[in-house]
Amino acid sequence: MATVTIKHITKAFGDNVVLREFNETFQEGEFITLLGPSGCGKTTMLRIIAGFEKPTSGELYIDDQLVSGGKTFVPPEKRSIGMVFQSYAVWPHMNVFDNVAYPLRIKKESKPKIKEAVDRVLAIVHLSQYAERLPNQLSGGQQQRVALARALVAAPKLLLLDEPLSNLDAKLRESMRFEIKEIQKQLGITVVYVTHDQTEAMAMSDRIFLINRGVVQQCGTPEEIYNQPANQFVADFLGKVDFFKGEVQFGRIVFTGMNGQSIPYSGPRTGKVDVAVRPENLYFCENGELEGRLESQYYLGDVDDCRVRVGDILVRVIANGYEYKSLKNGQKVRLGVRDMMVFEDDGLLEQLLKIQT
């Protein structure tokens, strides 16, 4: 296991600053996810940790050793890391055993030690029975597990994963998430994982670092970031959410475009606000604060994904799947609000919506 200490790291390519003042410590045994949209700087940070990029400024330590910063630079092969890439990057002419053994053969380890290490790691990734197969005889998920085994075979202190599941189909991605997390728990290894997939981040991480335009917007547990987002970007990126304009008046938020309808509010905000509501936090009830008309519903088995017109605003409601039997398009409904997030109306929402369109 290893700690990773990042001190004020900035990375620029010419005039383009892709990472700005990253400053954090990843603890031993943590599963850290760097999350964000394409081009936000997350892969650049991973490559700096791996030693494939040098920071423009700042320092990087693995345990107590300075590996990047100033005039010091330790090459990737001397950082005791394992890395798994988006592409499987397995040798097509080598069988599974030889693919996994490759890093140890480069180190000129003895044959008995190689066999012991490879057998152990193949058992961990559930590939022992495939040791003699070639990659073209394996599924995509099995090939990715070969790449994972190869990264683990030399017992690295730190495992780095760069969007390793993005080439897999949806069902396989879901199963591999839990396999990787279980392997990490079993080995107690420190993991830094890069993805743009919010579900992966939520399912696997001890802490998430959500990055946008090279700047960390928020770090915390999945629960903290989902339920207590630092700003509108974080609320929008992690999970489904609708934003509404409103104004705080006498202990209520009066929504813009909803014919003067309002809900109670006892928080600290005053004046004009942006209100973020996740669709699962709205529900149908007879005495709900908001009144509208059901426009459409999409039955998805476990949930009923509905659209309700409240004044001029279309509101999304994710209800229990059984609601589908009792609701009819066009009927009047009332909505209760379980929870909401209220932000200062600082213009960030307009910028966010402009980027999306």
Number of strands: 21
Query: What value does the average pLDDT take?
Result: 92
How much of the sequence lies in strands comes to 35-45%
> N-to-C SSE series?
EEEHEEEEHHHEHEHEEHHEEEEEEEEEEH
List the helices and strands and how they pair.
Blueprint: E1 4-13, E2 16-26, E3 31-35, H1 42-50, E4 57-62, E5 65-69, E6 72-73, E7 81-84, H2 96-106, H3 111-124, H4 140-152, E8 158-162, H5 170-187, E9 190-195, H6 198-204, E10 207-212, E11 215-220, H7 222-227, H8 232-237, E12 242-249, E13 252-255, E14 262-264, E15 271-277, E16 282-284, E17 290-299, E18 303-310, E19 313-320, E20 332-337, E21 341-344, H9 348-356
Parallel strand pairs: 3-9, 3-10, 7-8, 8-9
Antiparallel strand pairs: 1-2, 1-4, 4-5, 5-6, 10-11, 12-13, 12-15, 13-14, 15-21, 16-20, 17-18, 17-20, 18-19
Features:
five-stranded antiparallel β-sheet, globular, about 350 residues, 9 helices, six-stranded mixed β-sheet, about 25% helix, alpha+beta
What does this structure look like?
- The protein is an alpha+beta fold and 357 residues long.
- Helices cover 26% and strands 36% of the residues.
- The protein has helices at 42-50, 96-106, 111-124, 140-152, 170-187, 198-204, 222-227, 232-237, 348-356; strands at 4-13, 16-26, 31-35, 57-62, 65-69, 72-73, 81-84, 158-162, 190-195, 207-212, 215-220, 242-249, 252-255, 262-264, 271-277, 282-284, 290-299, 303-310, 313-320, 332-337, 341-344.
- The strands form four sheets. It has a six-stranded mixed β-sheet with strand order 7-8-9-3-10-11, sandwiched between helices. The chain has a five-stranded antiparallel β-sheet with strand order 2-1-4-5-6, with helices on one face.
- The protein is globular and about 75 Å long.
- The two termini are 44 Å apart.
